[in-house]
Amino acid sequence: MATVSDPPPATPDTRPGERHRLSGRLGPGAIVFMVVAAAAPLTVVAGSVPIGIAAGNGAGYPAMYVVAAVVLLFFAVGFTAMTRHVPNAGAFYSYVGTGLGRGAGLGSALVALISYVTVQGAVYGYVGFLVDDLVTGYGGPSLPWWLWTAVFLAVTGVLGYRHIELSSKVLGVLLVAEVGIVLVLDAAVIGRGGGGEGLSSALVRPDAVLSGAPGIGLMFAIAGFIGFEATAIFRDEARDPERTIPRATYLALAIIGVFYTLSAWAIVSAWGDGSVVEAATADPGGIVVTTAAQFVGTAAADVMQVLFVTSLFAAILSFHNVLSRYVFSLGNTGVLPVACGRSHARHASPHVASLVTTAIGGLLMAVCAVAGLDPVLEIFTWLAGIASVGIVVLMLLACVAVVVFFRRTGLDRRPWHGLVAPGLGAVGLALILVLLVRNLPLLMGGSTPLGVGAGVLLAAALAAGWLLARARPNAARDLTTATPADSAPQI
Questions:
Q1: Greatest alpha-carbon span in the chain
Q2: Nearest Cα to 48, choosing from 313, 391, 294, 288?
Q3: Exposed/middle/buried for 281, CB within 10 Å: 0-12, 13-18, 19+?
Q4: Is residue 69 in some structural domain?
Q5: What residues have CB less than 8 Å from 120, skipping those under 6 apart?
């Protein structure tokens, strides 16, 4: 992880018309900590894996993480190949805009804002509930979930206001702790040869992988990777963007894919192929903690419950950093008010964008609290459903943009990087998107009207990009411009 004792000053805010940039010396390790923390590994293992097993393809569910990782690897090949040709740190909207034009770029920017606002809000609701549950479980007072959420909002706002190095150090510590406890559980299960049925072989058996509802399993698996794609948003703060961003992207994807597959397989092995579905269905929220108590001890189970909370906080902080940098970039390109694109003279941080992000999160949680929504069954499930569909839409558009950009410009003539891999990624993501849309009511807590409404919201945001491009012709005008260094084609 990169460390900087005295961050370089940001671009002064007093120069009219100048594009502000963030600064930093983040290496691949620091960025990996940031994006893997957003994926919330312990939260996925303790929360999504049991649901994927129960509602998806049972003991064959761990294979869905392999499938998801392969599809996202195809996406990552084109995504990273285009990194050196994209001039700013706008991530998805910069890539889509560069490849498909300003209308598509601005539409994807709006979808990205909605997606990251909702996924952050989903975790805010969940962490408030979980902290109250943890405190009352140890004999403490029961308080409204939104009071705990307000505490996390404040702490996240303070860290997001400061230099990115501080957040990366906090995330590094929390991530090592949550991954460590799960690896201890994995090692204990493997070391004891699994449960009564031994180590599971369902992972490599086609009949097990295709049993039940593999489409639903894949849907939950792909949701566990949300966050890894945000590496490019830290471009301006990376030590060497053209090398750091691709390395961080591949490393994050590999770590997440291997970790999820191994841990899901360990959970299946602990209970056995014939019993795991029944166990996961009976207690989806507690099966992993119960497994830890059985194979490692009650102390490990208690530690895991605490780290579950810190895992959610790490995800919140990471999503806050990503969202604030989207707001910052959109302020710089004229889509949002120019004040959002200002950087702090001392902390070299997007301080105004960070404050805006905190305010939006606070407002969203206040609305949810006043409406009396359940923090898990409604806030978490509804908002996470919107975010899952939105992120897959963005990745699909990015794959298409890569193919179109390289076919049009000839800047990268390598077939694998410019055509085959992103093309395969687009096909895979399109199939996943169909699964998500078909099951959107399920992601939205079983409500068809809410599922339809979420789909309409995202579609309207994407379409609004073309209207915004016409209404504000100077907004994000650099989206279709490649960097000057790209004048010579690659061989």
A1: 70
A2: 288
A3: middle
A4: yes
A5: 316, 319, 320, 323, 357, 361
- Residue 472 to residue 105: CA distance in whole angstroms: 13
CA dihedral 164, 169, 171, 177 (to 10 degrees): 180
Specify the length of the chain in residues.
491
CA–CA distance, 110 with 108 (Å, rounded to integer): 5
CB distance 373 to 187 below 8 Å: no
**Distance, CA of 401 to CA of 98 (rounded, Å):** 7
Tokens 């070391």 -> residue = 191
**pTM assigned to the model:** 0.84
Q: Closest Cα partner for 263 from 179, 175, 388?
A: 179
Residue 402 has pLDDT above 70, yes or no: yes
How far is 354 from 345, CA to CA, in rounded Å? 14
Predicted confidence (pLDDT) at residue 488 exceeds the cutoff of 50:
no
Asked if residue 17 is part of any domain, the answer here is: no
Supply the angle between the helices 298-332 and 351-370 in degrees, to the nearest 10: 120
Which residues pair with residue 198 across a beta bridge? 195
Query: Distance between CA atoms of 344 and 239, rounded to whole angstroms?
Result: 19
Q: CA 180 to CA 292: how far, in whole Å? A: 13
Q: What is the CATH number of the domain that holds 248?
A: 1.20.1740.10
Distance CA 327, CA 337 (A): 9
Domain membership flag for residue 242: yes
**Domain of 259, in residue numbers:** 43-485
* pLDDT tens-place string over residues 258-295: 999 999 999 999 999 989 999 999 988 789 999 999 99
Owner of token pair 């490019």: 232
What is the residue type of 401?
A
Identify the residue whose tokens are 């068809």.
448
Domain membership flag for residue 9: no
How many independent structural domains does the chain possess? 1
Look at the block and give the residue holding tokens 């099966």: 287
